[in-house]
Amino acid sequence: MPQFLLELFSEEIPARMQSGAARDLARLAREGLARDDLAFETLGAFAGPRRLTLVVEGLPAAQADRTEERKGPRVGAPEAALNGFLRSAGVARDDLVARDGVWFATIARPGRPTAEILATLVESIVARFPWPKSMTWGAGRLRWVRPLHSLLCVFDGQVVPAAVEGVRVGDVGEGHRFMGPRRPFRARDFDEYRQALDAHFVVLDAEDRKRLILERGRALCAARGLELVEDAGLLEEVAGMVEWPAPILGDMDPAFLALPPEVVRTSMRTHQRYFAVREAGGGRLAPHFLCIANIDSADGGALIAAGNARVLSARLEDARFFWDADRATPLEGRLETLKGVTFHAELGSMHDRVVRIEALARRIAPLVGADAALAARAARLAKADLASGLVGEFPELQGVMGGYYAAHQGEPAAVAQAVRDHYRPQGPGDGVPAQPVSIAVALADKLDTLAGFFSIGQAPTGSRDPFALRRAALGVIRIILENRPRLGLDALLAASATPFDRPPAGLRAFFADRLKVMLRDLGQRHDLVDAVFALGDDDLVRIVARIDALSAFLATDDGANLLAGFRRAANILAAEARKGPLPEGEPARASSPPEEAALFDALAGARAGIAARDAEDFAGALGALADLRAPVDAFFETVLVNAEEPEVRDRRLRLLACVSDLMRKVADFSAISG
Amino acid sequence: MTLPGPLSFQDLILELHRFWSAQGCVILQPYDVEVGAGTLHPATVLRALGPRPWRAAYVQPSRRPSDGRYGENPNRLRQFHQYQVILKPNPPDMQALYLASLEAVGIDPAAHDIRFVEDDWENPTVGAWGLGWEVWCDGMEISQYTYFQQVGGLDVSPVSGELTYGLERLALYVQGVDNVYDLAFNDPQSPDFKTYGQVFLESEREFSAFELEAADVAVLKRQFEDMEAAVPRLLARTGRQGQPLALPAYDHVLKASHLFNLLDAAGAIAVAERQSYIGRIRDLCRACAQAWVAIEAADA
């Protein structure tokens, strides 16, 4: 079966866009082929620094012939209408068939050659390609991520004559810029293409490039008793920056290891895209780096390694300049600068924020077992590093640098640690702070952000969450659930709202939503969250414990049957309520039938059992409810609620209402579905 | 026969002049107003606008007052030199031309690792942006390569390709030297040999002190406002021959931009004020760009 090969050859494509581009290319091709009814066996797409490649196997030589039936005018319609239909359908009157008094035409659509369809498809892919950012060049109007030079576009061994403004289309490709023959090659199918790329020093598949980088990088390190510090994000990026990955291990002046390791790593990564290297066995950083060159040079990379080492020295020299200068100014001395840094036009300066967080951390501290003075001190210093030289250079080191500077100026360890960790958790994979002072400051930081933006009506909407408020709320929830301090969310929200003119409308519901999303992601049932939330509790630890207990209870036979009994009672009560007001008040105990008496007694017992337990013993309360299961089942089996005598009916309805009310005190069983 | 040694700083410039001259560029002199980047030379910012083809190359001393290190840092200068090339429209083989220019100054791409690394260039003070790369040689950024998309807030057509070589960095590389002040400025064999330090160190020391310690903030702010006021005044009138005054107005934009950099280096601009200053300069620049485009359209 014929094969289609397309290569879009351009100037260097940003690394961060390549994997998305490969996906988009595959998607556009798949959609286009489906639109034209062209089936295929397999489809693959590749992206690299200068090329996007598509290969589709097992296409037919042409589209299948198709017929289309078109409905015409009624039989007996005016002549003009019929003639108009014949013209538009392109058929003769003899070709029409009448069915149910209406004319139908059958139009034959012969399949077009696949090559012709592919030419149009390629043109439309180029025209519609969803680059995150594209450009024009020269005097042309075509848009691409960078200037597009040529297309290698071949179907079944023949060039597909696509027409793209100012771009060569043929069966000719180019290899590596600097290695190999450095002249164009011809390829008429994917095998020839891959062989040509091999011969021209291009590794087509990003996965192969990544594998080569890792294998060779690890081997280079191991040969010197070292270990590569692996970094998936960096690997992805460098694999998009080289066509012929050539890892080179370089040396660096060991004196730079006196800098914080985060500074060394970030400088290597951000500026130079080097991997860090450490002593074998997960030890400290070693005075080396791994850079990924794009060529094998005649001297085995010595010149390239020396050049890179010189650049890294200059970078680290600069970092050391900032590190020394930063430590010469106490953190408190930087607070003045924060007055000039706007946090948000309506929420004041970064300094205003520090003042708020300081007060809030002081209030939260006793709730999480932290020393209030230490928490306030840490909060006061937490943002000061934003005005330091190194954080100016590497914003991602905020907090981390503050922690170093706090330790340097002799702050207590708990303060330095809280400064360092107060931004955490910074994502789902990041841990939460565990020390009480850190917890207080981390909570204050996030709650101030949330209360502030909610108070000015900037709650997230849909996919728009420019201030990362969802992450902040989830951070609060995770910090509480993983450290288990017992505190009421409402009190926290009230405390965080005090500095703002308007209340943070909707913030409590936002937390409930975030908790639901989080529990759902953990595999918990959404409806159980509702059932527990309806109780109005605001102690997150207890709420989650209740959800867990309820989930376990419903999994038991007693739980499932009791839920069924609850529903039956609720249905009867709802049906009766539609007829008229339900009787109110406590039911009297009837001595017969025995099932009714038994339920009355069991209800009293369960009430007492639940009342005797404190709010923490949710499982115990559910256990007490479980005692109702057998009497409820027996009651429904033998007793007719809707008795003839009105006073009997009222008494039984009262009894059911009491059962329902008692159950709802433990959880809102009506919110549970399924 | 002796092998030629690496190029001196001035021979590097002369080689680039020779190379780009052969590509049809007019070889211009540095613009005589203080600027922070070679792009700001009217030969680039203004000539990138409008339909007429244009090829130019020149050296531009670029002043970055906040980078002043008193001559004590081997890599950072408050004034350095950019070699600037503009090709309008950019030719299809512009990358190849650029690489050939590197070979012309002694960088062999088979021995060095040359890379085009994404860097979307933007200069908010002149309302300009483009897509392109920083070019790395063994991990060192030696050039900026940009296809202009907007200048002065206006879309450009045709697109200009712009190359900016960091001459000191390139020279450090070519000469294999670690300290900028040790660069050979002219031929080391010459009896009149001078290092880069002998030519520029005193200037770095004096201007670092001026810009970081001795600048008079009140005067600078007043001068900034004077320049800002001059631009609309100049653009509102015509000369005796009916000519517009777009070029003189643009000079005042450059002066305002440099005064802003001086204020910034003096620590006189609060973070919250920065955007507003940049916006003011951008508006001035846009007005000049519009005036220039009108002139180009009238001539075309």
**Helical amount of chain B:** 40-55%
Low-confidence stretches of chain A: none
**Beta-strand proportion of chain B:** 15-25%
Distance N to C terminus of chain A: 51 Å
What spatial form of chain A do the alpha-carbon principal axes imply?
flat
Overall structural class of chain A, as computed from helix and strand content, comes to alpha+beta
Number of strands of chain A: 17
Strand portion of chain A: 5-15%
Topology (SSEs and partners):
The complex is a heterodimer of chains A (674) and B (300).
Chain A (H helix, E strand, L loop, with lengths): L3 E7 L4 H21 L6 E6 L3 E7 L8 E9 L4 H11 L7 E3 L2 E8 L4 H15 L19 E8 L2 E2 L8 E3 L1 E2 L11 E2 L3 H10 L6 H17 L3 E3 L3 H8 L6 E6 L9 H12 L2 E5 L5 E9 L8 H27 L6 H4 L3 E3 L3 E2 H15 L7 H11 L6 H5 L6 H9 L4 H9 L14 H20 L13 H15 L5 H9 L9 H15 L4 H8 L6 H16 L1 H23 L14 H18 L6 H9 L2 H10 L7 H21 L8
Parallel strand pairs in A: 7-9
Antiparallel strand pairs in A: 1-3, 1-7, 2-3, 4-6, 5-6, 7-8, 10-11, 12-14, 13-15, 14-15, 16-17
Helix pairs in contact in A: 1-3, 5-6, 7-8, 10-11, 10-15, 11-14, 11-15, 13-14, 14-15, 15-16, 15-17, 16-18, 18-19, 19-20, 20-23, 21-24, 21-25, 22-23, 22-24, 22-25
Chain B lengths: L8 H14 L3 E3 L13 H4 L8 E10 L15 E10 L5 H11 L9 E5 L2 E3 L4 E10 L2 E12 L2 E2 L5 E6 H9 L20 H19 L2 H19 L10 H20 L5 H29 L1
Helix pairs in contact in B: 6-7, 6-8, 7-8
